[in-house]
Amino acid sequence: MKTSLKLALAVLGGVLIGIAGARAIYAQQAKTRPGYVIAEVEVTDPTNLKKYGEKAPEIVASFGGRYVVRGGQVQALEGEAPKGYVVVIGFDSVEKAREWYDSPDYKAIRGFRQSATHSRLLLAEGVAPQ
Predict the structure, then answer these.
(1) Which pLDDT belongs to residue 68?
(2) pLDDT-above-70 percentage for the chain
(3) Residue 82: CATH number of its domain
(4) What are phi and psi of 91, to 5 degrees?
(5) Where residue 17 falls among pLDDT bands split at 50, 70, 90?
(6) Percent helix / strand / coil, the chain, rounded to 5
(7) d(C-alpha 73, C-alpha 82), whole Å
(8) Are residues 66 and 109 in the same domain?
(9) Partners of residue 34 on adjacent β-strands
(10) pLDDT tens-digit readout, 50-89
(11) Which residues contact 41 (CB under 8 A, 6 or more apart)?
(12) Is residue 4 part of a domain?
């Protein structure tokens, strides 16, 4: 077989392997399930909670988080409504949400929320994008 033909086949094989690898990486990334932090918050000390509120959005954003629900009216369709308000924060993955929650920056302000509210936080795995 001629050298130029061998070279052409080798290049073609490399391109096909590269395309297959890129598709596999994309498929894996596309299947990552988002993570959601869901909080029920009843404020007991509004003054102290302001210290938390001044920093929390900035820290959430630094981990790629975005507020999906932040206060607003809540209607109970079944069971009891929370006594306060609901917050839902979306992250690209459960791991990213956990990274935010365990971060030194968030730990530094978490105590303000804990001392100024009765709250319950949940971490839920969402549905992978189609």
Answers:
(1) 97
(2) 80
(3) 3.30.70.100
(4) -125, 160
(5) confident
(6) 50, 25, 25
(7) 11
(8) yes
(9) none
(10) 999 999 999 999 999 999 999 889 999 999 999 999 999 9
(11) 82, 84, 85, 86, 87, 113, 117, 118, 119
(12) yes
